[in-house]
């Protein structure tokens, strides 16, 4: 009787636990979905509708808000700048971090512990804390070029901004990829060597494809970081070649003073939409990359 009673109590506790977990998940989903849905709804409202109940549905869709935000407010140009900087930074990051991570994880060489420790230290340095030294270095480079060549290069340059993004993301990326490569069995490399493949071919044809879930995770995390980055973009791009977060701030200030809230929320949608689409596309691969290591051999 005691065992039956204990079994019933255990099942009851499990039901309450599941109920609590589902309740928390539903509350979290509501707190995330409702603000996003409200921004989308507000982006197609006419300006007079903002002075009534903010939760009322729009009477008709004001798609001109997106047209005005894209052309008049310059969000289309800012979007192109963000796409260019983010894509270039991700390409540079993967080209540098992937082979570096593989070498650190698989080979023994002089200075290996130093480089592992060097990148580990980089994990504890927030890029926003070193934006002033970076700015001063680039400013000094521009001043030197101005004196010698009569032109500047480093500041207000999207290529340089992408390079800075990639450099500041290297510690986290190398740390994550190195740990993933360490979980992969060496039998695959041994089989490739027996078939006559060299180190480079083994890396490109065997090991890099096996690290695909981890690479996708790295790309998504860094994409979100680069896409939403504000402080470095504001500091290193003082001219007109602004990225979306900086351009959105300018749009926010302009439209608030003009009391044109439709364009403001349309600009917010333009900023959010690429990240939402990317997350939907790689959701399964992201989950796999975060939970699956390698099969131990």
From TrEMBL:
<dbReference type="Pfam" id="PF00528">
    <property type="entry name" value="BPD_transp_1"/>
</dbReference>
<keyword id="KW-0812">Transmembrane</keyword>
<feature type="transmembrane region" description="Helical">
    <location>
        <begin position="83"/>
        <end position="105"/>
    </location>
</feature>
<dbReference type="GO" id="GO:0055085">
    <property type="term" value="P:transmembrane transport"/>
</dbReference>
<keyword id="KW-1133">Transmembrane helix</keyword>
<protein>
    <recommendedName>
        <fullName>ABC transmembrane type-1 domain-containing protein</fullName>
    </recommendedName>
</protein>
<feature type="transmembrane region" description="Helical">
    <location>
        <begin position="158"/>
        <end position="181"/>
    </location>
</feature>
<keyword id="KW-0813">Transport</keyword>
<dbReference type="GO" id="GO:0005886">
    <property type="term" value="C:plasma membrane"/>
</dbReference>
<feature type="transmembrane region" description="Helical">
    <location>
        <begin position="20"/>
        <end position="41"/>
    </location>
</feature>
<keyword id="KW-0472">Membrane</keyword>
<feature type="transmembrane region" description="Helical">
    <location>
        <begin position="264"/>
        <end position="282"/>
    </location>
</feature>
<feature type="transmembrane region" description="Helical">
    <location>
        <begin position="117"/>
        <end position="138"/>
    </location>
</feature>
<dbReference type="InterPro" id="IPR035906">
    <property type="entry name" value="MetI-like_sf"/>
</dbReference>
<keyword id="KW-1003">Cell membrane</keyword>
<dbReference type="InterPro" id="IPR050901">
    <property type="entry name" value="BP-dep_ABC_trans_perm"/>
</dbReference>
<feature type="domain" description="ABC transmembrane type-1">
    <location>
        <begin position="79"/>
        <end position="282"/>
    </location>
</feature>
<comment type="similarity">
    <text>Belongs to the binding-protein-dependent transport system permease family.</text>
</comment>
<dbReference type="InterPro" id="IPR000515">
    <property type="entry name" value="MetI-like"/>
</dbReference>
């Amino acid at each position: 009787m005691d065992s039956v009673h204990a079994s019933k109590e255990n099942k009851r506790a499990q039901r309450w636990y599941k109920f609590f977990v589902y309740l928390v998940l539903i509350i979290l989903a509501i707190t995330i979905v409702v603000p996003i849905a409200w921004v989308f709804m507000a982006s197609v409202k006419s300006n007079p509708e903002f002075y009534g109940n903010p939760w009322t549905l729009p009477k008709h869709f004001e798609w001109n808000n997106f047209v005005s935000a894209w052309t008049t407010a310059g969000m289309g140009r800012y979007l192109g700048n963000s796409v260019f900087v983010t894509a270039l930074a991700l390409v540079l990051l993967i080209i540098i971090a992937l082979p570096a991570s593989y070498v650190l994880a698989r080979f023994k060489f002089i200075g290996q512990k130093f480089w592992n420790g060097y990148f580990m230290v980089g994990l504890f340095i927030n890029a926003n804390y070193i934006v002033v030294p970076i700015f001063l270095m680039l400013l000094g480079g521009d001043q030197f070029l101005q004196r010698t060549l009569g032109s500047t290069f480093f500041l207000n340059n999207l290529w340089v901004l992408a390079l800075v993004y990639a450099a500041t993301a290297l510690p986290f990326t190398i740390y994550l990829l190195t740990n993933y490569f360490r979980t992969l069995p060496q039998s695959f490399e041994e089989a490739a060597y027996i078939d006559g493949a060299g180190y480079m071919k083994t890396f490109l044809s065997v090991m890099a494809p096996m690290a695909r879930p981890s690479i996708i995770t790295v790309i998504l995390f860094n994409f979100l970081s680069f896409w939403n980055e504000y402080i470095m973009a504001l500091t290193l791009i003082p001219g007109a070649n602004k990225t979306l977060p900086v351009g959105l701030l300018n749009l926010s200030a302009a439209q608030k003073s003009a009391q044109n809230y439709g364009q403001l929320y349309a600009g917010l949608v333009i900023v959010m939409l690429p990240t939402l689409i990317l997350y939907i596309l790689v959701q399964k691969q992201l989950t796999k990359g975060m939970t699956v290591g390698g099969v131990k051999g």
